[in-house]
User: Fold this.
Amino acid sequence: MINKLICAVMLIGVSSGCTSPSVSPPPTDVIAEPRTIIWTTIKAAEVAALNADLQAGKPTVDVGLYYPSNLHEDARAILPLEGLLEEFANAKRVFEPTGIQLNLLWLKTGTVDPGFLAINSTSDRSQMPSGGYGNLYVQRSQTPSELSDGALAAFEGIIEPADNNSRTVYLLALQNVYMTFFENLDDTGRNWAPKVVNTSGLSFPSYMYGDTIPDRIRGVITLTKHDSKNKLTIAHELGHKLINVSHEYKAIGPQHEIRSDEGLMLYGSGSQIPSGKEGRWHQERLLLSPYLYRLDKTGKQIWNADYEAGGFYYDPLYGDYTIAFE
Assistant:
């Protein structure tokens, strides 16, 4: 198992070379504030063009895109900014048949702490075998995943405080984001092996993390590789975040990894978001997502209801739109 990556947080402070006997020294437990990242908005014309088809009154998802200026040149080569804009345009087409529209709020660039560019997604304490009791969704509700310290520091340092933070999806371009999970090696439930994946995209979905992620950063999605073939990484990760399901499709049950060209929520060229019980209620769950709003006649955002119990798969928000998997 790889060691957990620890993000270096650069601090700004003032120190004095001498003290007066009559003045008490500053307390040693005062922690300086992390350095603020200076973000610059870029490619406003391209963003405006992507948003040209937006219609008031339709269910909408707000998305922000952060692209650090100090990504390694090799990382920029496999995660080009133009490729991400292309993927976002494709994601708009994927969700359009469901009636959902994606609104790209802005594209920002800036220099971030180098320690934020490569992270482990999950803390050591939440990396353990499930034990085999209940399906994937039940297991995660009993033992939710938790962000690693490095991931928490990176997301809190990159995502700017703003109104509706908890209702906004944030796409973060990074260099490496590792995910660790355990695979059962046999049918006994006794033998497990850790598997470490260097992800292309990771959505930190509520069905895995519940409310262990602070609300302000719960909309985070990391991206480390452009899908130049199918151009579906952003759409797929948005599916995890908004539909709130794992890799599953119709007769294919939820699991960590599965490749097929059927359905958006599998690894492949599929882009279908099915409805009804046969379709695992994907469209119905999507339309209930707390990240959706509609503009009323005055231009006010009317948001969907929020999660009622952390946002796990069986959250009461979804009512009967769940499956009792084995």
